[in-house]
Design brief:
With 360 residues, the protein is α/β, with parallel strands linked by helices. It has 2 domains: 130 residues, 3-Layer(aba) Sandwich (Rossmann fold); 182 residues, Response regulator (Rossmann fold). Helices cover 37% and strands 19% of the residues. The protein has a 7-stranded parallel beta sheet with strand order 1-3-2-4-5-6-12, sandwiched between helices. Helix 5 runs antiparallel to helix 10. The radius of gyration is 21 Å and the shape is globular.
Length: 360
Amino acid sequence: MTQTRRAFLGTASAAGLASALPLKLSAQDALQMALVTPSPTADVGWSHTLVEGASAAAEAVGGELSVLENIAEGPDADRIMQRAAANGAGFVILGSFGYMNGGLQLAQRYPQVSVLHASGYQVAPNFSPFAAKYYQGTYLMGMAAAALSKSGKIGSVSAFAIPELITSVNAFALGAQAINPEIEVSVVWVNSWFDPASEREAAQALISQGCDVMFSNAQDTPSVIALAEEAGVYACNLNSSMQSYAPNYYLGVVGTDWAPFFTAQARAHLEGTFEGANYYLGIADEVVYVDDWNGDIPSEVMGRIDDRLAAIGAGEFNPFTGPLVDQAGETRIPEGTTMTDQEIQGMDWHVAGVTTPLPS
């Protein structure tokens, strides 16, 4: 079931949140699950993949899922997640970094509720952050982008300048440099997860600057992909396939499949073994995948991509292995040193070759 903020609050119990008491489920009751997303679920994008994963998990464990979509970060989200728990949700998935503080309060108030939180870093006994190692896939997309770029300039329309997306851009640049060391990457940060007009405007600006391959970095709309198709430039994106919006110039997708992870965590909740932990999942975990490669990618480059994909999956290659130099020319990671997961998740600098400064 999918609900908006207004519909959910309108149909929920009239009892005030301050006096609401958690509902305990009996053994024969289905697990009540709630998913809160920051944007409309639509047919593509981040929220779409969350719904697919949560729906698969609910089916696997015989649970019932409520999807509360397009919920703004802040007081609205806090009220809605609290109301979901008060009405019996025992397993809650929060789909945005900005839900973290409210989610922690939820976990503290309802210790019998298990909470998964996207992209955060706080951990509690019943509160687990989860994130995808998108950078593993965007490195491979960068290789393909450089192979097809004629201008030596590629661009990224990116949602927010947070570490998760900074690492995606950096790996995209490093992958491109593996094919063409002189390539440049320009970035426009639109400061929104869902703003079709701004995304389209940003993509147009990058194309006008000579970028002939586009990376739609965490947009929940196909605006960048569709515009690239119109302009005749290749484009790739995160989370779910948007190939139908660009039948000719779709470069590929760095996708996520949350179903196995969500299912395992829902089962742990039912078995009483759920433990708060920080989950950072990638290709080896079968959460991140690459697909829909464009047939225009030269076979020699595709062979190199396949080799790198295998090495990443086997744990034999990490894009963030030194030497890594930042935009100012300073060596951040020395030769032979690989960044830890914690360092990658806190990355707040761009590698050399990314020409756009990070916003202050």
